Amino acid sequence: MCFFLSLLLLGPRFVLFIWWLVNPVMWNAVFDTYLLPVLGIVFLPWTTLMFVFLGPGGITGFEWVWMGLGVAADFFSYTGGAVGGRGRVGSYY
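The structure corresponding to this sequence follows.
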């Protein structure tokens, strides 16, 4: 369980960091400044990963579904521990 949680939280950040080092041209085409991708890597890594993956052409049509999946993955990765850990607290019984 701990390995899965570490992979869920650190996996997209690691992929984004490596992608940023390997292909900075793509990142420069998608983002104008360095502030937005850094904030995205820290707070919304799955959404940032989808945004960079979809490319600099903008988000149109079915690509909004992919962005929604990225937002949902970020949301569930931050809130999933609350539901699973609720049973470990004695006052919830």
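Residues 24-80 form one domain.
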